Amino acid sequence: MQIAHLSPTQLIERIKDPGIYIETGPFTIHLQTAVAHIAEGIRLLYEDFPILENSGVADFHISFIRTRSLRPWVRPEVRFRLDSESPFAPLPLEQAFPMFEWCFNWCISRHANQYLVIHAAAVERDGYATILPGPPGSGKSTLCAALVIRGWRLLTDELTLVAPATNMIAALSRPIALKNRSIDVIRSIDPQTAFGPICQDTAKGAVGHMRPPTESVLHVGDPALPRWIVFPTYKTKGAMNARPMSKGQTFMWFARSSFNYTLLGLTGFEVLSNLVDRADCFTLEYSNLHDVIEWFDGFDPRELAAAANSAHASQA
Amino acid sequence: MQVKRDVLIQSFARPDSVVSLTPFAWDMLVRCTRPHTLLARLLILLDEHQLSDKIPAFARRHLESARIVANNEERVLRWEVNRIQRALRDVDIPIVLLKGAAYVLANLPVARGRLSSDVDILVPKDQLRVVEEALCRYGWEAVKLESYDQLYYRTWSHELPPLRHRDRKTIVDVHHTILPPTGRLRPDPEKLLEAALPLDGTRLKVLAPADMVLHSAAHAFQDGDLRRGLRDLVDLDDLFRYFGSDPTFWDTLTLRAEKIDLARPLYYALHFTHLVLDTPIPERILQTSWRWRPIWPLPAVMDMLVTGALASRPLDASKSMGSFFRWLLYVRSHWLRMPPWPLVKHLLYKAITRGRRKKSS
Asked: Residue B355 — very low, low, confident or very high, per pLDDT cuts 50/70/90?
């Protein structure tokens, strides 16, 4: 059964008690909350995701509780809990849905050491993945959203999971978090794009989540082979400029922006070397999304694989 | 007395019992085990009992993930000990590793899957300043504490305020004895240092087996409040099982307990590991330890508090009997540590500042 099969009222009641078990790629979360903002976000953004019935089994049992105050002028807030742990300060009620997404990410980045967890977006075409790392503000989520609208499959917008046994990326296909002006930029590319509730005053500015395409959610179980790594930087003007980036620099960047590279020890080093060795790495400055999408459309796994091999041969 | 065993305690006491767990019970087991920081230890226990193929895939993921964290903690800890040795290479005094660092460096079974990369060391009291200065030359700094907490450490504690390395953010606790000098029980650190054993290939030492067990018992039942739940008991269980295979160990242990003033904590350690985890302890040793029991009705009260505090807590918020018992144990640990009037002042100060902190966050 999928979330879309429940009526809005059914969904709200179910999430309130006993909670719903949503499967997103390799993780099942048990979400339980009476906060309507979260139920509403789930209804708008997760409708294609499967829900598991009567299982009682989940990777993360999380709940969001509205804090009570006797003083009516105190703004209502929401507190996150993972089992008995409550690691963060509460946030205002209006931010409950982005808070759910952040807390879900936190659960994965903290507990999923069966993967190397890299802070990066990733998309897939023909079985090959492009990883888009970058600090907040570099435009990785915006670029990821634009590529997904143009037919790339969404793997993840925030946490790239690489499985050590296979060196493949496991998809999450969860909603893409967009900030401030990016929301309008994406709407201008495709006015049909569905968004969840837009929150104006979060710590990161205005935040809205884009609904993942149905195709991406249906194929969430298909892993992808990392093939390209592109470090995007958004500029307000100027021509697009893509330049090869050295493997050493790429490696160091990933080591720093992984959540558990150090923790994985030798495994972390091996997975990351393998990933960087087999990928073509670029830095990319862009001001116009249309140019960039065209450039990505030119990616050809066979051609580039040959280029990479000859590069190896010349090094040897 | 019979103790009601929840799924977590049962899995540690009788590992074979996991074969009959339903998926739902496995899920509960993972959730109960996580707050006690025992996930990695549980995986190792099940491996040792050839039960790892009985673990369902969804539970295994979490156990394996925790084992990766534990392996990293061990790696970090070994490197920290290496760095501490380097920092103290010109300080010509005995340095004794305590707790986790000792377990890991001495390759004891209790180290398996244990989470903690803090290093605790014991040095003679008159050398505290020398050690602190040497560590500070190599990048450790006193953790910035409120002035009240600084004062608390210097006045009431058996250790320096924690030192944190400025780059690696790791913590060293430098002790001059193993229990607060103001407390009811005062084991003589001279005796501990004297009996300490050298660690092969290093200039470091670890406590002799009996002292190591007594320190762990004191940590759980005299100085501590079982805040880490079952973890303290699992440590003691591992230590008893390992050292207890030497038949002379038990008599050495009981004699030593009386000699260094740690008989009461040893009574609790023997009693509760046996009661809760079925730790194999010779009957005559249990009988010997009864004479160290507190007067009636304290044994019954402690049974209630300790088993209550060990109760699993995946779902409970702060308002449950378990957390009330944990609070009572916290108060007890302070009662044993400080004279009554300063204790009242300390608890009041902590209660007020906690209220303030909650408000400001």
From this structure: low
Band of residue B66 on the pLDDT scale cut at 50, 70, 90: very high
> Residue B72 is nearest to which of A83, A84, A263, comparing CB atoms?
A263
Where along chain A do its domains lie?
Answer: 3-111, 116-315
pLDDT of residue B36: 82
> Which residues on B lie below 8 Å from A56 (Cβ)?
23-24, 27
Closest chain A residue to B32, measured at CA: A83
Helix (H) or strand (E) holding A182: helix A181-189
State the average pLDDT over residues B69-95: 94
Closest among B353, B349, B357, B351 to B156, alpha carbons compared:
B349
- Check A84 against B317: CB less than 8 A apart: yes
- Give the residue on B whose Cα is nearest the Cα of A266: B72
CB distance B314–A61 less than 8 Å?
yes
A316, pLDDT greater than 50? no
Cβ count near A272 (within 10 Å):
21
Alpha-carbon distances, residue B191 vs B93, B98, B195 (angstroms): 15, 15, 6
User: Beta strands B163-165 and B140-142: pairing type?
Assistant: antiparallel
A192 in reach of chain B (CB within 8 A)? no
User: Does B301 lie at the interface with A, CB-CB under 8 angstroms?
Assistant: no
What backbone phi and psi angles, to 5 degrees, belong to A100? -60, -45
- A59 touching B (Cβ < 8 Å): yes
Q: How far apart are CA B219 and CA B233, in angstroms?
A: 11
Which of A56, A61, A112 has the CB atom closest to B65's CB atom? A112
- Tell me the pLDDT of chain B averaged across its residues: 89
Range B7-360 classified under CATH 1.10.150.130: no
* pLDDT at residue B240 in the model: 98
d(CA B1, CA A301): 69
**pLDDT, greater one: B326 or A227:** A227
- Residue ranges covered by each domain of chain B: 7-360
Helix boundaries (H) for chain B: 7-13, 23-33, 39-48, 57-87, 99-105, 128-137, 147-156, 189-195, 209-218, 230-243, 249-259, 263-277, 283-290, 298-310, 321-335, 340-360
Q: In Å, how far is B326's CA from the nearest CA of chain A? A: 15
Instruction: Give the per-residue SS3 of B156-190.
Output: HCCECCCEEECCCCCEEEEECCCCCCCCCCCCCHH
Residue A90 C-alpha from the chain's centroid: 23
Q: Measure in Å the smallest separation between the Cα of B243 and chain A Cα atoms.
A: 32
Question: What is the complex's ipTM, to 2 decimals?
Answer: 0.88
β-partners of residue A31 are A20, A62
Read off the pLDDT band of B273 (50, 70, 90): very high
pLDDT per residue over A85-135, tens digit each?
889 999 999 999 999 999 999 999 999 999 999 999 999 999 999 999 988
> Which of A55, A85, A113 is the closest to B65 by Cβ?
A113
CB within 8 Å of chain A, chain B residues 67-106:
68-69, 71-72, 75
